Amino acid sequence: MNKVYACIDGQSNTAAVIDWAVWSAQRLDVPLEFLHVLERHPERAAISDYSGAIGLGAQDALLHELSEIDAQRGKLAQEAGRRLLIAARERAAAADLNCVDGRLRHGELVDTVLEMESDARLFVLGEHHRAAGGARLHLDHHVERVIRSVKRPVLIATGAQFLAPQRFVIAFDGSTTARKTVAMVAGSPLLAGLPVLLAMAGAETVLARRQLDEARQSLAAAGFDAATALVPGEPEEVLPALLKSQGAALLVMGAYGHSRIRQLIVGSTTTTLLRVSELPVLILR
Length: 285
Hints:
Elements: E1 3-7, H1 14-28, E2 32-38, H2 42-48, H3 60-94, E3 100-106, H4 109-116, E4 120-126, H5 141-149, E5 154-157, E6 167-171, H6 176-186, E7 196-201, H7 206-221, E8 226-231, H8 235-244, E9 249-254, H9 268-276, E10 281-284
Parallel strand pairs: 1-2, 1-4, 2-3, 4-5, 6-7, 6-9, 7-8, 9-10
Antiparallel strand pairs: 5-10
């Protein structure tokens, strides 16, 4: 586990993904490698597959021309990917990061990520929504599939611009997963030196306060300036406003749940917070 892998695709938040990856690699003191995966989209493949239309009068010349167009499209995509990787490496070098590489692959993003997993310290990728704000109904399918497939931490850039975090918030619920998240944060250099807020949503109880205080003490013992907040209500309803009030911050949480049902989807709280959070999100496993 000795690299940060940044998955870039040339969409609107690619610069933010690059900058988050550079920031992470510098904090972890590990090399950075950019990944650009050329996926074959079924809807495009269907356009060029006219083999079943021969009996309807399709001409060989037309089929040949369609094949040439498809091949040209592939060459252009490959060249665009190569230039994207060059630009990403140049942007990283401008930020004084020297150990940078780039890789162009054909296939599926998730398959590529899983192939690199054994050598990964962290994956960074961008989230793309078809709608903004409260209209966000679903996670980007690439994000969701990567999160539920890999066992390495995943940092998700949710916006088009990078702002170096001045603090971070841990979504804490007192569970075993949440306590493990706290322990991982305490033992990693990625967030060292940043103030942290442990945020819990729920009723004011002696147990909740004790769990929060134990987590705060663990982080304080590791050198963090840690504070706590217990907000009444459901996490997906009350935490977004709290997160928005934190300014340039990073949301940290665990991928909740390992039941048979939740092997198919990310835990509901994780999914919802990812969908509604305007902050970049670090998910720990």
